[in-house]
Amino acid sequence: MGRRASKANKNVYYLARIQAAARVKDFSSREQASERLGIERSRLARIELDKIQPYPEEVLIMAKAYDAPYLCRDFCSNVCPIGIENALGGKLKDRKKDSFERLSLRFISSAHGMEDLSRKLVDISKDGKITEEEYESFHKVLKAMNELTESVKEIKAYIVDNPELRSRFEKDLTI
Predict the structure, then answer these.
(1) 77, 157 in Cβ contact below 8 A?
(2) Closest-CA residue to 138 (of 130, 128, 127, 148)
(3) N or C: which end of the chain has fewer CB within 10 A?
């Protein structure tokens, strides 16, 4: 087995290759992996060392070969401008990197009072229609739901952006 590349140890493509090496011996060295993938060895090294971004086609090849579909999601969410804009609801902006603690507090703050909002939603929906008087309450419920949804997305994005967490929770994520 090849040596661990300490400079690449947080790179998502490198980590995916190393995980795949546990199943497929050819992925244990960059040289063998490059032959199997059809990506030049020096290019694969630059990708794994964060010197260059891979082409979408290369990401697709690695995702399939490594059995790591999250590579495509990561690329689309963090590199591809179309994917980034789509993930942000058509609002192209830099995703700020908040700490896990801040994201957790934001989630808890959003979730606070959900029991009361759930009761309001039951009251609004129990007769099967939304009356004119209920629209304002329903608007508040939807606003709170949107805030909670956004908090959940931010925590999931935090996990996806962290290769160690992503590898542990990939099966639990639907982004």
Answers:
(1) yes
(2) 130
(3) N
